[in-house]
Fold these 2 entries.
Entry 1:
Amino acid sequence: MAEPQTPLLSIRGLEVRYETDEAITHAVNGINLDINVGETVGLVGETGAGKTTTALAVMRLLPHRTGKITEGCILFRGEDVLRKSNGEMRQMRGERISMIFQDPMTSLNPTMTMGEQIRESLEIHNKGMSAALTDARVDELLTMVGIPPRRKHEYPHQFSGGMKQRIVIAIALACRPELLIADEPTTALDVTIQAQVLALMNELKESMRTSMILITHDLGVVSEMCDKVAIMYAGEIIERGSADDILDDGPHHPYTVGLFNSIPDIERESKRLSPIAGLMPDPAALPGGCKFHPRCGDAADACRSLAPPPFVSGEHIIACHKFGSSNGGRI
Ligand code: SF4
């Protein structure tokens, strides 16, 4: 029997709060997640579910005045990310973990040429690399993401949105990180370019064995890209499993069912979509019991007062009273 592998990234009991004078926002509420080498894990849910906050916590990039990790641990190759110094974290970001944001302009400097920006990223993390080698690597990275190297002297505004995002990917991959966190990397792009960027990310993942956390609300993207999926709601993971577990017709959390019903199904030619009624609860005033109960058509009395224990079937875990409990504890 194959030895169970040690996860590249292991998140345990993570809680994140944003604290201001007015309110305490419970953004992430005790999540557990493992990512193995070479694996792509989709973090899926509506805006405000806690997906980006989870990613920022892993990168240690939470806004330092308001964002606080109040519980839990994040292990990267067994090293405790939360105990690293700021200097060690700067080193880790880029070299071992990189992040791609939704809007490429968040990551690009409009006053520097694209070549200079890739070069800068290489130089920060490869002190002592010769100028000739750095130049060659810039050209190689541009070629890898399908941009002719002769365009390295151009500025961000001279590129289309899709090309800018591909260059952001080149910058993120410049140091061959072990983990790439991509936060809605294709949402700002039109559908054809979206498909090209996703195909590129898949190719790079295969060739470099990079693990990936892919944050998305798009289940189509999940089916293209992910090995495992965690569905987030109100700062909790409410269902988790392999991509097949999540995408097949098996039992699902009522929120996951709602997510499926709110996307167009081209194969079944369904014309009517039924978005989930109501809104995600205010994270500064979360409801008791199951946090989805105010929006759930299946809610029963227990759902309003008791947090649902996880129902486990192999790798597939659902936190919902409908399915009962098979092991207690939290997903
Ligand atoms: Fe709905 Fe209850 Fe399940 Fe929550 S625990 S999703 S309210 S049935």
Note: The pocket of iron/sulfur cluster is lined by residues 253-254, 290, 292-293, 296, 298-299, 303, 308, 320-322 (CB under 6 Å).
Entry 2:
Amino acid sequence: MLKEPATKYRPFPPVSLPDRQWPNRVLTAPPTWCSVDLRDGNQALAVPMNVSQKLEMFEALVRCGFKQIEVGFPAASNTEFSFTRRLIEDGRIPDDVTIQVLVQAREDLIDRTFDSLVGAKRAIVHLYNSTSPAQRRIVFGLGKPEILAIAARGTRWVKDRVGRLPGTDLGFQYSPESFSATEVDFALEVCEAVADVWQPTPERPIIFNLPDTVEVAMPNVYADQIEWFIRHLRRRDCAVISLHTHNDRGTGTAATELGMLAGADRVEGTLFGNGERTGNLDIVSVALNLYMNGIDPGLDLGNLGRLVDVYERCTGMTVPPRQPYAGELVFTAFSGSHQDAIRKGLKAWETQSEGASDAIWDIPYLAIDPRDIGREYSEVIRVNSQSGKGGVAYLLESEFGIELPKDMQREFGPIANDAVDRLGREVSAAELRSMFWREYIDLTGPWQLTGFRTSGDGGVVRCTSALLREGVAVELRGVGNGPIAAFVNALTSDGAPKFEVAQYSEHSLGAGEGASAIAYIQIRFADGRTRWGAGVDTNIELASIKAVLGALNRALALP
Ligand code: KIV
Ligand code: ZN
């Protein structure tokens, strides 16, 4: 890299707009969305979509609720042409959906584009030519007047052919390609010339699509360009202002959002930001950003997983795990403190939202409720060596209904964490359950229970317990104010170190008659040492007796 980048690169000149209004505005409504997946997105694929993939993608876009879909560049190839024909001839375009087709300002290409649209109910012809200084100088070797003439002539060619599509409600869109790198007054001059030819009206407005073809400046500069353009446009009431951003600097979403504040009405983009180089604008992000601010985006993204599947199948691209909203990991916390906060947040949400239709989402680390877009709370907390007791406890509870007492979480958390650290990878809830079972339930020595009976009256319980002590059968009897106390008495009066029950809880595991119960017991020795034990049985009394024995076995195994 250069030590002095200024010798090779220069800062982008700001737009002079000292009384800019957009920073003080707030978005309150969604724009009109136009998907360009089947055109701009498709042009960026190493292997472009074939007709059946385009059909599947088209249907997914319609299901999402897109009312404007740029279906291709029909004059560019046979596939593009026949796809457009297929949509029209098979009657696959719903009445409320308008297809859009792109074309350069060349007469033969415009002819072919019109041929592709015969029979369409509603369509937009999208004409473009590039206007920036670099394009004028390097690519076309033309001055401003000739570039303006290309746009005006192209518009005339389109206008002259409108009569060829008598049954079609035909709209017109013009893009000064590379708008954001064009002097803003020249971009406006070209658009005014186009409008002079087209003669839009408030009832039949022209769409001016102002592309950030290559992102060359910060998003606030794009917003200034949009606001400047809108404020200087002669007949604002006859125009729909459309944004089309790319993501070269990684700020396509920001540029679009600021452009919307600047007054744009319409947004073009693709699912998950597929598109040339670093991609087009990711429409899903902007739509869900609106949603998280309480604005209905007008798109149904409630099953984002299904959309990801269609997208990946059709484009051959993959949605990265950190992709906003759609990525596999975007609702997942591995870190212990995040897990703890999320766990508490979700618990609070359950209580707060019970029966309330207007409970406001405000859960730490979760920008929106994952369930709103078809994700599950089970993906929110995943456990690896970065995780803490909270994550372990959450997975055991949410997947298996094992509700560890708080103190036991403190004991088992580090045990699980050490095991996960040794494995050096993420562990599943089932693996955590096995660790728990190994640590607390499957213990067989030195004591093992083979039988347990109680009898009693007047609040006094007597127990007879059959046990194996290091493999040797013994029978112990004890008395207490309950079965557990009687069993502790039996053990401690026959050689086990003195201990008492410090904490106890139990609950059922699952439902129904065959459901088992799990008991958690913490025992405390005379010297203050404590150990947790757990026991599982279909009989709750036996579950607690096993838990006592488990705690004792653990204490004896790990003094
Ligand atoms: O990025 C761009 O400028 C385009 C135009 C054709 C609208 O895709
Ligand atoms: Zn583009």
Note: The chain has a mean pLDDT of 95.
